[in-house]
Design a protein that fits this description.
There is one protein chain. The protein has 232 residues and is an all-alpha fold. 66% of the residues lie in helices and 0% in strands. The longest helix is centred in the C-terminal third of the chain and has 29 residues, at 169-197. It is globular and about 50 Å long.
Length: 232
Amino acid sequence: MTDSSIDDLNLPTEPPTPRWQKILGITVAAVTIAAAAFAIGRFSAFDSTPAAQVPLDSSAEAGFARDMQTHHQQAVQMAMIIYPKTEDADLRAIAYDIATAQSAQLGQMQQWLIDWNLPAYGSAPAMQWMASSGDHSGHGDPSLTAEERNTQMGMATDAQLDELAAASGTQADCKFLALMIRHHEGAIDMVDAIEDVGTNANVLDLAGKMAATQTSEISAMQTLQTRFGCAE
């Protein structure tokens, strides 16, 4: 075969990038964007609450900020697991939105606690602040184990996170969707509770945005479950 006939084949001049390198590149980019979103959230969390109305350590607002930070951290973790491995553009977009939006909200809630001169973590069990929130009072039951409280919050277990990380293809997509839908539902329960008992305008404003976004994402993820033929 002559040199000219080889040129006519339009063969690549460089070997294709290995899949692991592509995944690494996508992951690094996503981590960088999420970190930037967190920083933006921190510096945009201006709290105009008068000093006399700053939430106390035992307040529903402090409990909400602490519990929702824990909740958001896991959502970002799951989004970062599925983002580089899914082959579906719609699911990747949802994962990207979750990672960036919730990273920014994490920054906001962390800054609130700093502005309120409160520790990042309280001594009360998770969701105890919900005990007086009407329909969600059962979530604050002090007799529940930590595992039972996590289940009520829609949190994934360590074993489920390991399964998600190990899965691939449609199986990974379906696992993520099932876990994240339940996760979002737990967050909406917390939003409903803080809207019932909270009084801080900044907290209530962010809670309302969380509910609207996550309700929309649940609908989008359920549509994907149908398209993928997920069993769950």
